[in-house]
Every structure is written in C-alpha cells, then in structure tokens.
Amino acid sequence: MRDSYREELDDINDCLVAMANSVGSAMSTATTALLDADVALADLVIAGDEEIDATRESIEQRCFTVLARQQPVAGDLRVITTAMRIVSDLERMGDLAEHIAKVARMRFPDNAVPQDVRPAFLEAGQVAELLITKAATVIAKRDLDAARELETDDDAMDKLHRGLFRQLLSEDWPHGIETAIDITLLGRYYERFADHAVSVARRVVYLVTGERYRA
Amino acid sequence: MRDSYREELDDINDCLVAMANSVGSAMSTATTALLDADVALADLVIAGDEEIDATRESIEQRCFTVLARQQPVAGDLRVITTAMRIVSDLERMGDLAEHIAKVARMRFPDNAVPQDVRPAFLEAGQVAELLITKAATVIAKRDLDAARELETDDDAMDKLHRGLFRQLLSEDWPHGIETAIDITLLGRYYERFADHAVSVARRVVYLVTGERYRA
C-alpha cells in the first residue's frame, strides 16, 4: 500500500495508461505481422497477451483493495469503478490484437491479406493505432477534446469496414471463400477494437462530466 | 433505498437473473427470426435491446449506490463488483442477439441461412438457450455444478462453430460470398454469446470459491 491514497489512485491511472500503450503496441505489431506474413511477430503478440491479461488482474485487484480499505465515496468511487471498466475494454482490445496475429499465423507462409485488400488493412491498422493512442491520452489527461475526436476517428473505421464489404461483394472477388472468411473476421476484429477505444473514451467523459454519450 | 441492505443485495441479484432471462428470450427470438426469415420477430429483438441496455444502467446505478452508501467490505464488496461485471456480459449478449436479428432483417424476405446450414444454426440456437438458462441458474443459486456444465456446453458450441467452417470451406459451397460472410459473422455471434455465458459462470465461481478458472 502506498503512503497516500491519492497517490494510489494516480498510480492506478498510470497503470491504465501503460496498459493502453501495451495494447497499442500489440495491435501495431499484429497489423505488421498480418501484412508482412511475419510469424515471429505474430508469436510475439500471441505470447504478449498473457502479460496484458496479468496487468488486467493486477489493476482489478488494486481497485478492489482501494474499495475495501479506503471505502471511497462520490468522485473517487467513480474513478475506481471507471478504472475497473476501462481495464476490461483494454484487455478485450488485447485479445482482438491476438486474434489478428492468429490469423496471420494460421495462413503463414501465405499472406492472409491479398494484395488488393492490403491498403484497407494498412489504413485500418493506422486508425486503430490512432484510436488507442488517443484513448491513452484521454485516460492520462482526461482530455475531452481527444475523446470527441475519437468518435470521428471511429467513423473512419466504420467507413473502411463498409468498403471492405463492398470489395468482398464485388462481382469479381477472385480470392475464394477461405480468404473472404478471413477478411470478414479481420474486419470485425478491427471494428470491435475501435468500438472498445470509443467505449474507453466515453467512460472517461462520463467520469468527468456525468453525462453519457448517446450515439 | 430498501429497508435492509441485505434485501437490496438480494434484489440486485434477482434483477440480474431477470436480465439473464430477458437476454435468453432475445436470443431465442433472434434465432427463430433468423431461421424463419421473420422480420416482425427480428424487429422485436432489435427494439427490445434498448430495454436490456436500460436494465444494465439501472443495475449498475444500484450497485454504485450500494458502494457509495453502504461501503461494503470483503464478501459483500465482491458480490457488488461481480454483479457489475456480470451485467456487462449480459448486456453484450443482448447486443449479439440483436446482431443476429439484424442479419435476418437485412436479408428479408430472403432467408439469410441456406437450407443445408440450417441444422447448424438450429443447434447453435439451442446451445445458446441452454447456456443462458444455466447462466441464470448459476447467478440465482450460485450453483457451481451448473457452472461446470456450462464449460462443457460451450465446447459443443465450439464444435458447431468448427463444423460451420468446414461446411463453408467444402469444395462445393454453392451459396456464394455474401452468404458465406453472413454465415461467418452469425457463427461468430453465437460463439461470442457462448463465451460471455461462460464468463458469467466463471465470475460466480470466483465469487464463491475465490478461485479463477484457468482454461
């Protein structure tokens, strides 16, 4: 237990930011593994997910200990319950990065993503990185402007996702069913990753303003 | 606020059970909507998801109020934090039922599921119902035997899911890419629904025994 209760709350928040950064690295590495059919990178992401899961447990346990020992009320209580929810989103985002790495691994030495779909996933990877980076900023600084930007960035991911379906459904999709399935699931993983980043931002907005975002 | 704090905890648990039952109805209706291409049933599920979301907010708020006013420690504190997590799983399961209903609605008046894939989704729907029914029992009675059974039932869902992929990837898949995409996503929704049911059961096991299940 740290000397000061306030320091413990700050420290938990720092851990959330560090976890968000780890998740961002995992996602960025997973995208590279996918686009380069790099099985060593894919394995790094898959092995690294255990650490992200362990971080989740550690943060949850610390939140629980603060609840039990300090019995925070009002604002501080909301800080802790928000942290417990954010940590779930972040862990799930780590799982999604792992799912992407697993698709890369499953198709190795082939590339799961055909050349003509590559630009869409390159961009999805970049949007995902942007989203998790901003989510980390939102957590670190309770930055409501960044939280608002995240909503717009998520629209970009949705647009990419729709474009992917158009490509899959074009008359001349030449890559067969197996690749179509991979692309469908990969698209879903990136989209869900983005949804969770938005969820993190909304939780912080609710913490700061008391207002829930309504889409 | 109820007279007795203990009654309030019991009442929150009853609400969780009722929510699990609502989610079960939604999933059951969504499966029927999907298999019968019944757009009226699909709309029921889609409209009903708002109520499930509202229940989530209401239960979360009640948990928060108990934390703030009663400052529970030890076992009671764990009951509340577990309820807050279970409610997230249940809400997400409601979303997945809604996703299934939306696929049925999107393909109406066509049937999203071709005749030869129908048995797999009929069974997936039955397994999903079984899982959420047992999850409700686990919440209601802290029934650890039912929790263990859930793990096995989830294996059945995984097996169904693998069978679906085999069917999609057979040489003679005659239904084209669009249907393959629908089936891929539908399979994923049922699988995730099952995962969340397992997660609910594991949270209750952890609450009762203090031991985390390791897959």
From TrEMBL, chains A, B:
<feature type="domain" description="PhoU">
    <location>
        <begin position="122"/>
        <end position="204"/>
    </location>
</feature>
<keyword id="KW-0963">Cytoplasm</keyword>
<dbReference type="InterPro" id="IPR026022">
    <property type="entry name" value="PhoU_dom"/>
</dbReference>
<feature type="domain" description="PhoU">
    <location>
        <begin position="18"/>
        <end position="103"/>
    </location>
</feature>
<dbReference type="GO" id="GO:0030643">
    <property type="term" value="P:intracellular phosphate ion homeostasis"/>
</dbReference>
<comment type="similarity">
    <text>Belongs to the PhoU family.</text>
</comment>
<dbReference type="InterPro" id="IPR038078">
    <property type="entry name" value="PhoU-like_sf"/>
</dbReference>
<protein>
    <recommendedName>
        <fullName>Phosphate-specific transport system accessory protein PhoU</fullName>
    </recommendedName>
</protein>
<keyword id="KW-0813">Transport</keyword>
<comment type="subunit">
    <text>Homodimer.</text>
</comment>
<dbReference type="Pfam" id="PF01895">
    <property type="entry name" value="PhoU"/>
</dbReference>
<keyword id="KW-0592">Phosphate transport</keyword>
<dbReference type="GO" id="GO:0045936">
    <property type="term" value="P:negative regulation of phosphate metabolic process"/>
</dbReference>
<dbReference type="GO" id="GO:0006817">
    <property type="term" value="P:phosphate ion transport"/>
</dbReference>
<comment type="function">
    <text>Plays a role in the regulation of phosphate uptake.</text>
</comment>
<dbReference type="GO" id="GO:0005737">
    <property type="term" value="C:cytoplasm"/>
</dbReference>
<dbReference type="InterPro" id="IPR028366">
    <property type="entry name" value="PhoU"/>
</dbReference>
